[in-house]
Design brief:
The protein has about 675 residues and is mainly beta. It is built from 6 helices and 60 strands. The radius of gyration is 58 Å and the shape is rod-shaped. The chain starts with 5 loop residues before the first helix and ends in a 30-residue tail after the last strand.
């Protein structure tokens, strides 16, 4: 078998190629061969319309005709005139080539969309159904709205309220702003729903305040959970106010807790039994009270009925001094007050049974000028009292011995003339024994009443001392104080405010994505960069909530809104860049930034690609670094058009008289031109 030499093989291939088409057709596809040069007769100034027709100075070849200027609505783009409003190779500016699938419309490269769609930021969308472009590019439906026929609407079962779609039934709302009866909105955001007033323990609330019911307090200063703390011994009327030992919280006040035998009567522990009381305000049957602590026996007062301001005397006694405390002190069977106060019997007569007469009636004895019942007057004889009875008014013949020293008279307690007189106290006598109860502001010490003070409060030696407190005082036997600024009451002392104990013990200031601190008894929060405060939490910044909740960033044509450090910003789409407050299309005169022009390149055309300047080389040239060089240079044959030229000085057009060879192997040695 004989093998063909490589040169012979190349000539055979060339012979086949030449038989299919002329050399000119192969060398100048879509162009015309003018004296060995491939030219475009529509634009070539040296061969305008036909070979050899050279345009004169100032003229340019346009559409195969030499003209002085570009037609109307076209501009000079170097070697050609172009309509910048519709030319895909010069759209908006010379050299701005539209991408595949785009067309030039009103100087902008836009996507060629199907019928019923529109290009929005380079994407074909259905404006009737797209919730991000509802009725127009960039018109975003808020919240959970959907797009129907180009209009943003809320789904069935919800109602549009302040750009939100709310389910009134689930959120306990009557309308967009009002809660149903029995509910309130402590969050200040109806989209979170209304909560039960009963569960919140409030009577009224809003986003800035809550009004607690009678049994609860708002101690954590969070409106969202209403009044969370129940009033009791540890929070009596005020958050953190603890009742001292011996006191109990009733109706928001720390009241005295008395021994089992005593009762709390307006803050005083009284033994009702020894005072002959049924309760704090009522005397036992047969006893009467006129303002003192103890109730006195009605028979000793000689009264049949009594009240705080009046008495009714027994049949044989009169109230002549007008002092209801000593009851009816005058026996009306005396000559001085016979039957009535001041009714004196005439000389020679005596008073008998309330009537002036010459002799005493049955059972009565004459004592001086009076008829007296010795037993009723507690007399042994006309001048001597029975044992344990006293003549307190020194008028023994008129009313006998009217006081029982073993009774409740504090001026004759246990013995005639023995007085119960402890200063700053209520004194009383019980079965002949002196008792006393210190007045408010005093306490008992060594059988006397000592005035309350910060050194002796409620009892001797009990000092009122509190750290971080001011205005320390003793009131009604109880140490009181005000906490200094920066501290709060905790039990019976003041605790300094801190993030773990702010305004009261156990109230922690804590927040995610932020810094917590306690200032003037309130939790204060500072959110981290990229977050903002919303209610009692830090919400991440976004285009719909930038710097604060609900602050949405405006849409930007050919860009995407974003939030940067709490301020609205935007990023431009590919092939656009920021200029002022808009996105400007990249072009050779504004590439990547406004005013950044792409440099011209010899034997090539500048272009802007992805915000960076680059260029394309003219036909017959290729890129080499930052320049365009002829594709037929060097010691080896290179492609010239579509054929190979064996001469190193090829200018881009292969000469007709040269033999053309086609390299079959890139690793073949250099070819030698045939003679």
């Amino acid at each position: 078998m004989k093998y063909m030499t490589r040169s012979a093989f190349c000539m055979a291939v060339l012979s086949v190629m030449m038989s299919a088409c002329s050399l000119t057709d192969i060398r100048c596809p879509d162009q015309t061969d003018c004296d060995g040069a491939c030219v475009d007769l529509q634009t070539d100034n040296a061969h305008c319309g036909v070979c050899g027709n050279e345009c004169k100075g100032g003229e340019k070849c346009m559409a195969g005709v030499c003209s002085l200027s570009c037609p109307d609505k076209q501009v000079d783009c170097g070697e050609t005139c172009a309509d910048l409003t519709s030319d895909v190779n010069h759209c908006g500016s010379c050299g701005n080539v539209c991408k595949d699938g785009e067309k030039c419309v009103e100087s902008e490269c836009v996507v060629s969309c199907l019928e019923g769609q529109m290009a929005c930021d380079g994407v074909c969308v259905d404006l009737k159904r797209d919730s991000l472009n509802c009725g127009g590019c960039g018109q975003i439906c808020m919240d959970i709205q959907i797009c129907e026929d180009g209009t943003c609407v809320c789904p069935d079962g919800t109602t549009a309220c302040d750009s939100k779609c709310l389910d009134f039934g689930m959120l306990n709302l009557d309308n967009c702003t009002e809660c149903k009866q029995g509910f309130c909105d402590p969050n200040g955001d109806k989209s979170l729903g209304c909560k039960s007033i009963e569960d919140l323990h409030v009577t009224a609330c809003s986003s800035t305040y809550v009004t607690c019911d009678s049994t609860h307090l708002d101690c954590d200063q969070r409106n969202s959970n209403g009044c969370e703390t129940e009033i009791g011994n540890e929070n009596c009327g005020l958050c953190g106010y603890t009742c001292e030992s011996g006191r109990i919280c009733r109706n928001g006040q720390c009241e005295v807790t008395c021994a089992e035998t005593d009762a709390n009567c307006d803050g005083r522990c009284l033994n009702l039994k020894e005072l002959h009381r049924s309760d704090c305000d009522t005397c036992e049957e047969g006893f009467c009270n006129h303002g003192g602590l103890a109730c006195n026996a009605m028979d000793l007062l000689h009264v049949s009925a009594c009240s705080a301001g009046a008495i009714e005397c027994d049949d044989n006694y009169l109230d002549c001094d007008g002092n209801i405390k000593n009851g009816c002190e005058i026996n009306k069977n005396t000559n001085e007050n016979c039957g009535a106060c001041g009714n004196r019997c005439p000389d020679g007569q005596v008073c008998s049974n309330g009537v002036c007469a010459t002799t005493c009636g049955n059972g009565l004895e004459i004592c001086g000028d009076s008829c007296v019942d010795l037993k009723e007057f507690h007399l042994k004889d006309c001048s001597t009292c029975e044992e344990n009875f006293c003549d307190s008014d020194h008028n023994i013949r008129s009313n006998g011995c009217e006081v029982d020293a073993k009774g409740s008279d504090s001026n004759h307690c246990g013995a005639c003339g023995k007085t119960c007189d402890v200063a700053n106290a209520d004194n009383y006598c019980v079965e002949g024994e002196c008792k006393f109860h210190c007045h408010l502001g005093y306490h008992e010490h060594e059988n006397a009443c000592e005035e309350d003070s910060v050194d002796n409060c409620s009892k001797h030696g009990k000092k009122c001392e509190f750290a971080y407190a001011t205005n320390i005082r003793c009131e009604s036997g109880e140490c009181k104080f005000d906490c200094e600024a920066g501290s709060h009451q905790y039990g019976s002392s003041c605790e300094q405010d801190s993030v773990d104990n702010c305004s009261m013990h156990g109230v922690k200031c804590q927040i995610n994505h932020g810094i917590s601190r306690c200032e003037k008894g309130k939790c204060v929060y500072t959110c981290d960069k990229g977050y903002h405060l919303y209610g009692e939490s830090c919400e991440v910044d976004s285009a719909s909530n930038c710097g604060s909740h609900g602050k949405a960033c405006s849409n930007v044509a050919h860009g995407t809104p974003k939030c940067n450090s709490g301020k609205c910003d935007f990023t431009c789409l590919s092939d656009y860049h920021k200029y002022l407050n808009a996105c400007e299309a990249d072009s050779v005169s504004n590439c990547g930034a406004h005013g950044t022009k792409c440099s011209t390149v010899a034997n090539g055309a500048p272009k802007c690609e992805s915000g960076s300047c680059t260029f394309t080389c003219n036909e017959g040239y290729r890129k080499n670094g930052n320049a365009c060089e002829s594709i037929c240079t060097g010691s080896r044959p290179y492609y010239c058009g579509i054929l190979c030229c064996p001469k190193s000085d090829c200018s881009g057009v292969c000469e007709k008289n040269l033999v053309v060879v086609v390299p079959l192997d890139p690793f073949d040695p250099p070819y030698t031109p045939l003679p």
